[in-house]
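Team,

Forwarding the record for the chain on the shared tracking sheet. I've put the sequence and predicted structure together so nobody has to dig through attachments.
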Amino acid sequence: MRYERKYRIEDQSLAFVEQMIRHHPWGFRTLFPDRQVNNIYFDTPGMTCYKENVAGVAERKKYRVRWYGDLTATEGTKNQLEVKIKNNALGDKERYAFPGFSLSDWNKLGTVVANSLTCPVSLVPTLLNSYQRSYYGLATEKFRITIDRKLGYCPLIQENQQPEIRHRDEAIIVEIKYDETLEAEANQVLQYIPFRTTKNSKYVTGIETGM
């Protein structure tokens, strides 16, 4: 399990945020080149995952298929099915290989996901999102920081055509991730982050853009 400390930043430029990370006294460095992250999220027909997130239920799960690069590059072999597991402030992730698919067949993916997980409940696609991500870390690999921007969403609940990004979010999302055993050490890292931690769920934000 690991902690994911999140910061939703709306009043600073990307250049300022990047400079803050690069000048952090612990010496964060770029891990690998920026890339575009794309996800299709899945929920029950009654939107259980969304409702539990909004209500702050301590133990909950979130389901998504993730791929990288162009939004339409879904037929590759590196797609991943991910199950995010949340337990209060701690999180974990299960990953499974996922077959290539056509974005035009998005409404059929819920059955594929449920079968892949032998899931006891029905799942339907509810959100498409995309964003640009930068990756930073320490040489010790104890702490990682991601910076997300150019966030875009397409709620799928009432979608009846091939989805495309229809809603934009100008915020910058910073996440600091570290193992649960490093909480004491993390305080020394977090004290140099000049922002207030926030509860931020791209899934919730994306769903609510369509409400």
